[in-house]
Amino acid sequence: MSDHPSDPLSVFTRTLSARTGRVFADHTALHRFSIDEAPIFWRAFVEFAGLRWSGEAVPALSGDAVETARFFPAMRLNYAENLLYPRGDAAQIGPDAEAVTGWSEAGDVVRWTRGVLRARVERLARGLQHLGVRPGDRICAVARNTPETIAAVLACAAVGAVWSSVAPDMGAGAILDRFRQVQPTLLLTDTRFTYQGRTQSLEGLVATLVAEVPGLRAALTLDDAELPAELGVPVHRVAALGGDEDAPFDYPRLPFDHPLFILFSSGTTGAPKCIVHGAGGTLVEHVKEHRLHGGLTGDDVLYFHTTTGWMMWNWQLSALATGTRIVLLDGSVSHPAEDSLLRLVDAEGVTVFGTSPVYLQYLDRAGIVPRERFAFAALRTVMSTGAVLHRGQFAWLAEHFKDVPLHSISGGTDIVGCFVLGRPDAPVRAGYSQAISLGYDVQVMTPDGPRRSGTGELVCCAPFPSRPIGLFDDADGARFHDAYFAENPGVWTHGDFLELTEDGQARVLGRADGVLNIRGIRIGPAEIYAIVQDFEAIAACLAIGQEDPQTIGGLRLVLLVVMAPGHALDRPLQLRIKKALKTGASMAHVPAVIAAVEGLPTTHSGKLSERAATDALAGRPVRNRDALRNPETLDALAAHPDLQLAAAR
Question: Using 50, 70 and 90 to split pLDDT, how confident is the model at 596?
């Protein structure tokens, strides 16, 4: 099945073959088995991964309804124990091996071994217990991407508390929308953060949160700094908590579905959903993705560009369970130098580099040729998510960065994992994700029902372990049902518009709520972006539909563009863009209007919001402006002279 018989996927495939008597000639055969024989597949994987657990591994799956099925109902485990004391292939990694490396944009580097990380986590876990934290208690954090935050989240998991975090650059209103719903007992926070060389205090934000989030009993500072005594609740320094560092810590093993994380949806269409993820499902799915799809082992170094407010931070965290060293960046990718992130990747010997199409485009537009500046001797794989990865970016990476596999991965906060991603045993096809996640029955919904090939809305038709436990404060499950199961009863509806090929590869075409119906033809915005991104004059773009009763179908296609420095949107450029869209896609992809704007509405996790822009043009209130990093862009859109319907006549 693979040219690399020692990689984790090949080893697992041979193990499963010996156990079942089945021969898996290729990834497609293994994927088909993992769906048809899900209990056998998942039980075999848990044993192969060497996870620490107690109880029983049977039944592996209870029930067959996606909405209500449970995995390993008789198993108990502790997420933090599995990351700090991995077994299986990672068992030979000693306490002196480096576990977490933290870079600041100022160039400071912190290195923690596995022994140091364990000691810090266990000391803080004992401190949390002394403060009265018990399993199921909720803890919220305003946290930088540092080793100290890694220790904090693992300490919370160690005692069975539920973790939620946001990045420190998020506005107070957006944070309150999230933390008020969760009602945490403790607030963990940094007291300052630095971005692009500018340091900002968080004391005012912390005071606001303490005053307006109900139920807070205390605040803890992650960066060992003091907060004002008059804050209104006891304030502790994390470093001062805990007792004897040498005292053993007893990791409580909790039910497989014990809540681990509460993650938040972007909140651009209403109040953010508080999505509750279980410890077992998160751990099993992440280890499966890391080992079988990413090939991670104890020899790897993983960097994924993220903040503590995005699910990829949680995803990268779990790589500790494979023995992989994780590298963090606290700050900007382009400060103090335009290639600061590239310098980190090279200097730390990163083997798997996680990035986004936006960063790759930044390098291209800035004229940065990474291979001319750094060797990237250890780099073996690049992963990309957060937006649609265009075909041309695959060739750009091979030519200008390094000729290594580029894995386009996609899933979301809703499942704290991936539906489609890479595989280590096959070549990459430009523009596509190589595989559906093993064990996941991903299909596309068509007018004739779900299909395993074709184009439609992404659905999952069988139970999967990282399906969330539910939404917080939704006792009867009604909101959870409405969010994911009401549209297509019996299957999980994810909200992405997807193309599936006959051989199991996938191409995400954008969010389903961003799919446009132009004169009866469904258009995924990604099809437009893939063509427009080849124009050097365009730094960023957004394709949306503007309601227009005088247009056939009632919707006209509008392309919003941010111009690169030194370029202007003149008539010849507009004609070239329209010709390229007509030739490369279809007449339906040609916008009625191309408008130059200063900025595009972007969420705090860095994703463009088609919904917010559409509502602004239609004159509808945007339901949650605080969910945007730059809400002022909506006012500029609403007032843009080229986007006024009367002016267009």
Answer: very high
Two tokens, residue 194: 């630095």
Listed in sequence order, the DSSP H helices in 169-299 are: 172-182, 203-212, 279-288
- pLDDT of 648 > 50? The answer is no
Distance CA 600, CA 362 (A): 16
Report CA-CA distances (Å) from 112 to 44, 279, 326, 481. 33, 24, 10, 43
| SS3 per residue for 370-425 | HHHHCCCCCCCEEEECCCCCCHHHHHHHHHHHCCCCEEECEEECCCCEEEEECCCC
Do residues 290 and 322 touch, judged by C-beta distance below 8 A? yes
CATH number for 516-648 (one of 2.60.40.10, 1.10.1740.10, 3.30.300.30, 2.102.10.10): it is 3.30.300.30
- Burial of residue 57 (CB within 10 Å: 0-12, 13-18, 19+) is middle
CB 610 within 8 A of CB 622: no
Task: Count other C-beta atoms under 10 Å from residue 360's C-beta.
Answer: 24
- The count of other CB atoms within 10 Å of the CB of residue 298 is 16
Over residues 563-576, the mean pLDDT reads 93
Name the residue type at position 259.
Answer: P
Phi-psi map region of 155: left, alpha, beta (phi>0 left; psi -120 to 50 alpha): alpha
Res 397 pLDDT > 70? yes
Q: How far apart are CA 513 and CA 612, in angstroms?
A: 11
- What is the total residue count of the chain? 649
| Cβ-contact 508, 576 below 8 angstroms | no
pLDDT for residue 2? 47
CATH number belonging to domain 114-259: 3.40.50.980
Q: Contact 302/74 with Cβ under 8 angstroms?
A: no
Domain boundaries, the chain: 114-259, 516-648
Q: Residue 428: pLDDT above 60?
A: yes
With a CB cutoff of 8 Å and minimum separation 6, the contacts of 278 are 256, 257, 258, 259, 260, 468, 469
pLDDT band at 1 (very low <50, low <70, confident <90, very high): very low
DSSP three-state, residue 360: helix
Q: How many CB atoms lie within 10 A of CB 42?
A: 24
Distance CA(635)–CA(421), nearest Å, equals 37
